[in-house]
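In response to the reviewer comment on reproducibility (Comment 2.3), we provide here a single inverse folding case reported in full, input and output, so that an independent group could reproduce the run without further information from us. The structure tokens appear first.
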């Protein structure tokens, strides 16, 4: 694969899991920043793009990981991808967010004297993230995903898709905007915790909180990657098919 500075980050990340892992290791955003050309993404992390391209080519020289290959979500129907996102990522968030809130409240009480200021900053990022996500998920489940499935059915001869949002690009644009907001809050959490550095006086609950926040970040990155780079382009393509038939 010939990787160039003008290629979109999402195209590189989707081409091979080793490339996606290399991009993320270098600090390049493959979910919210997936539509940027590699040149701009390299500039954002203050890396010469030539060095980034070189690292990506090195990644392709490494053997494929021995773990079971991930499903190629580009090859499935949009409705199946919607179901996967709801059943996997939405379900995870509904379960995890309350648990993390309880952990954070517990840790703030127990470690107020030594780490109170830092934990207050954690709360200032986590609380708006939690609220934004709990408002975001129903919009996908009740508005955007049913519209995407209806568009797919229409391309197969089904009834016209009905939407009060106008073009599917409108709710997609709102979801992307909210994804970017979530991404900024995740970055703030990582910065506040100094990349989730565990200190010697951290209790079991404190360590569990950090582990949980890192797992939340990883799941959200995967969640947003699937939507921004695979599902949403599929939906826009479906709408274009409908308009030309």
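Designed residues, in position order:
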């Amino acid at each position: 694969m010939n990787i160039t500075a003008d290629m979109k980050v999402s195209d590189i990340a989707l081409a091979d899991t080793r490339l996606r892992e290399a991009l993320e290791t270098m600090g390049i955003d493959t979910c919210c920043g997936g539509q940027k050309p590699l040149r701009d993404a390299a500039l954002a992390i203050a890396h010469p793009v030539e060095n980034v391209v070189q690292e990506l080519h090195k990644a392709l020289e490494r053997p494929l990981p021995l773990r079971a290959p991930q499903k190629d979500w580009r090859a499935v129907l949009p409705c199946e991808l919607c179901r996967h996102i709801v059943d996997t990522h939405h379900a995870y968030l509904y379960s995890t967010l309350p648990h993390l809130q309880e952990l954070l409240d517990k840790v703030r009480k127990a470690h107020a004297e030594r780490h109170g200021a830092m934990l207050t900053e954690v709360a200032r990022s986590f609380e708006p993230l939690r609220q934004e996500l709990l408002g975001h998920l129903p919009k996908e489940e009740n508005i955007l995903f049913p519209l995407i499935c209806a568009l797919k059915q229409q391309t197969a001869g089904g009834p016209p898709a009905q939407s009060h949002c106008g073009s599917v690009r409108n709710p997609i644009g709102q979801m992307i905007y909210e994804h970017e907001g979530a991404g900024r809050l995740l970055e703030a959490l990582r910065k506040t915790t100094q990349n989730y550095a565990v200190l010697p006086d951290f209790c079991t609950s404190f360590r569990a909180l950090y582990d949980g926040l890192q797992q939340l970040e990883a799941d959200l990155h995967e969640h947003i990657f699937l939507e921004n780079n695979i599902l949403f382009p599929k939906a826009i393509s479906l709408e274009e098919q409908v308009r030309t038939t």
